[in-house]
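Reviewers asked in the last cycle whether our approach scales beyond single polypeptides. To address this, we selected a multi-component target totalling 1180 residues and predicted its structure end to end. The input consisted of the following lines:
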Amino acid sequence: MSSARGQQGQKRRERSFFDFTLLSVVIFLLCFGLVMLYSVSSYDANLNYNDSSYFLRKQIISTVFGLVVMTVVIFIDYHIWSRFAFAAYVVSAVLIFLVLTPLGYEVNGARRWLNLGMSLQPAEVAKVGVIIFYASLVCKLGKNLMTKAGFAVIIPTAGFMALIILVITENLSSSIIVFGIVFMMLFVASDNYREFILLAAGGILIAAVVVILVQKGILSSDLNFRFARIEAWLNPEAFAADRGFQTLQALYAIGSGEVFGKGLGQSMQKLGYIPEAQNDMIFSIICEELGLFGAAVVMLMFIIMIWRFVIIANNAEDEFGALIVVGVMSHIAIQVILNIAVVTNTIPNTGITLPFISYGGSAVVFLLIEIGLVLSVARSIKLKNS
Amino acid sequence: MQKKLAVSFLVILLAFMGLSTRLYAINRDNGEQYKKQVLSQQSYDSVILPAKRGEIVDCNGTKIAVSQKVYNIVIDSKTLNSKNGQYLEPTLKAIFDQHDVNFTVSQTDIRSYISSNPGSQYKIIAKKQPYDAVADLMVMINDHAQYPDIKGVWLEDAYQRTYPYGSLACDVIGFVQGDNEGAYGLEEYYNDVLTGINGREYGYLNDDSNLERTIKPAENGNTLVTSIDVNIQSIIEKHILAFNKEHENEAREGNGSRNTGVIVMNPKTGEILAMASYPVFDLNDPWNTDGLDIQISEEYVMNGIVPDVTEGSGEADSSDEALKEDTGEETAQEENTQEENIQEGISDDGTATEPVLASSQMSYTAPAGTELTENTEGVPTDKPKTYEEAYEDAKLEALNSLWKNFCVNQTYEPGSTMKPFTMAAGLESGKLTGNENFVCGGVKEVGDHKIHCSNRAGHGPLTFSGALEQSCNVAFMDMGTMIGRDTFMKFNRDFNFGLKTNVDLTGEALTNSLVFDINTMTPTDLAISTFGQGFNVTMIQMITGFCSLINGGYYYQPHVVTKILNDDGVVVNNIEPRVLKQTVSRETSDKIIELCNNVVSEGTGRSARPAGYRIGGKTGTAEKYPRKRGNYLVSFIGFAPADDPQVAFYTVIDEPNVPTQAQARYATLLTRDYLTELLPYMHIFMTEELTDEEKAELTEKQISFAVSTAIEEGDSEEEASEDSGVITNENGEEVNISTGEDIITFVDGTNSRDYEKPELQIDKESGYAIDPDTGELLDPVTFAPVDPTASNLE
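The resulting structure, written as structure tokens, was:
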């Protein structure tokens, strides 16, 4: 009885493992994000919509909805998703193609959204889809992962998804993120280094060549607006009036924040100087209002979150769960790094949002779904030394 | 896999550290610079919130000058060009769809401005548009939800001065030019009162280096309540216009007169009820030169640079010839006037030697173009002007003379309207008794000069009253001799000749150099002064002085503004009638009234009497300088009703455009025309029996008339006043008014009889007695009027 009871108790304890650290970090970032969103967007919202909480309200609704979905996902056994892995890939691709139909609509000149009763950005769906699909695929390939057969399956599918996101939604950043997620998942799953280092080096080399060509004026901004962004990145002051404006204003915001910032709500740059500061550039306002200290705290939170992902992935019940966590970790890490890199003008401007903090309904809902998946994986961890 | 995860985590950590370093580096290297940059791009620039200029209203509250809120449309190229020009087309379409807006710049110019000045944030494309024209645009600008692409355009508040009555009382009101700056008339004189204080919206950095924006609201200007009555003003202007239209182009090209001026005043307060002159201009468009005769200066034309193709130069070129023709005509004309025996003034040898006169005439004729011909011949200018410059000068000169207020700004020799003043001086000083008899032989020799009477054949024997009735110059020269130079000049000073009246209108002419100097005055000067020649006055001086002759001797400061109200309609300054001095006694005043009544009932002023009324007054016909050109200034000064003057009026026609100018009839008839309408409007009852002819006239003019039974009473009263008039003379010598610094105080007790009112009400507030006639406050001991508001005025 006692042993049975003990076994039962152990079982219960195993079952009841829950990564409260991760959840706390997520909730902290969400709340912090809402506070900052209100601070940043209220001026613009009041000016354009006569309602200073316009953006805040919409974001709260998305966040609450996301938390509900997350809770549901936590209590669903994540193994179920492997059955829908292929479907997730197909659905993601179909949704991206739907942007071309009348269901798609434009915001600020970019056609990236679907109107399905509620607005939805298919690229966000694709990120979750890719994580599940490749976690499942890599498990199925097993030892064949690093063989020609493995490459023959992985490279076209990943390339196809990245390509349609780039071409159809003209969204380079999402394309890079999808590619990055797959890259990281494969890197972690395999035992090899050489191929990945070569690939990374190759990517960096191509980027460097493009930058040099732009710098020399061989690839001019007339060919593609992305080259114009590279020009602006190289010399933001020269394009202070137009292309470099947003970047330069973000730098002013960061530079004027000092160690502890001007205080919450005291940003001057949000008053019409940084266009749409609530989206990509929210981190610059965090630096201006809360200073380097505030920026460090935010970055620390993300590091804790990634650390928790590493822990969960290491202890996951099976490879599928571990790979899901790796995928989510890649997604969030890449997005945070790229966002801060853009804001600090370390890389050219691509529209990447800061997870949990930037304004964006689809993004927060699907991020919370991903967190739900991770917590679901965490729930299945067997505690050994109970 | 665990190893790989550790490697990944390490890579991510490295990336975070790299970014942290980057953040730190930005703050370390550029922190100060970026901080300044952030502060420098904040908008501290202040926006002016315009104050509303105060209104001008007439005595009944009718608005004569108002300021309306209008809007300037301003575009911001920087915003229009932002976001790849996303806002450009929708915004421009919205702007150009406003078809009621009167753009100062064409559509193509606006477009090219936006593309060539991408950094500009302030460009006015339409000025002072009324609300109706921009109402739709205003909705679109403010409704971001519905019109998200309308950006880079905004409306700036401004005020537009408008004058609902157009040209009515234009010389009195004046206009506003440039940045809320009054020009001429009340607008200029009371500019500080009307302007208000502009507000400002501005930004500043507080202690925490945060930008704060503050609004200091505008203080609107004060409203002027004037004594002008729009109805009276309209009546006067209607008849002035009618006269000038009637005689347009009659004897020469141009208006019916060089100038026509009329002032209507309340003799018991000095308030100006109407002041009009002709030609007029539209206050809403004062720069309009249509119908102006722009004459380019002679010197310029003589330099021969201009081909005589333009209107201006053509006329000026021929003026030499015209001058000759003129002189020829005038000789003939002079003969005419002599035949008609109505010419006044003096012979050529009598005036030519007067230095004062010469100087005064210079100042008078200077503004008028053609008279300069003789003087300017052969005088080379330093720089030859271009035709445009010369034309511009001439245009400005013509406009300035148009904008001037003839009634206040212009000086002239008054002529025979001076005669009541001469008589008042004689009676008041006791040098004349009123019982004198004169004999006019048509000419009197004074000094070395023979000075003719208006009637060269002579008026024969004349009574004191007859001298005024017939306007006999010889009799007045005799009176001048009796009065003597010192007394005459002392009284002239009392009547304010040579001084300003300080009427509250811009640019009152100063006549101190245009009157005789008592130390250098010759007997000839004295002789011609008695009938108003040789010295200059302004219309406002004459009417104000004349009012003191008929109101019991009180010299009121003439004024137009009676109250100043603030933006909320609260009285901030009440301008009470203000007695400056006592010119003559009540007795003298009564006598002058009687004498003036005789002029209209028996003498030269007969034609001025409107149907149904008895009035008093005096005509004037003054030959202008240079003499013998047939140019006259005819006038009539008077009051109504005859027994109790309620209203005083003065009509001056400068060079009526008729073959024979020397006829006061033009002034008396004009006076009669406006009085016929004015007196019924002022609720002054008719006292005289109407002839059938007069009834027909009144019916035609749609003026209601009722012959009351009061006629009999009126007649008997008149008789009584005539009797009492004789008595006055005996008191004349005893009248003792100190005319020095302490002007108002009466010294002589004998005169106080006139001011002893049996039952005087006492004003509870001030403790002064109230004059039942005028409502003004009197000193309870001396009965001299006091002015409780004196300290409020300048």
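Chain A touches chain B through 50 residues (CB under 8 Å). We regard this as preliminary and will revisit it once experimental data from Aim 1 are available.
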